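Our preliminary data section would be incomplete without showing what the modeling component actually yields. Below, a chain of 85 amino acids is followed by its predicted structure, encoded as tokens that our downstream tools consume directly.
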Amino acid sequence: MVNLLNTVSTALGERVAILEDMIVDPDNRGGGEGSHLLTGAIELARKQGCLRITLLTDRANSGAIRFYERHGFNLSEMVTLRLLL
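Predicted structure:
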């Protein structure tokens, strides 16, 4: 499953998307399902007029980072900050 959230970037002044979650059952990984889900999410964001998709993944999750990079994502200079409530 993939969860794509739409919002407006005040920096760009345009619609952008946040890829909040993407999950593929471990038994189904490596068969192209993740690529199919991600490609569909990217195409949906384009059709909705989004200029950018942003996502977060754990720094230690090198497999996910390689997966997203293969699909054109680049590491960002942005720093993530969190406040747990």
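The first strand starts at residue 2 and ends at 9. The chain has two helices and three strands. Preliminary results of this kind motivate Aim 1 of the renewal.
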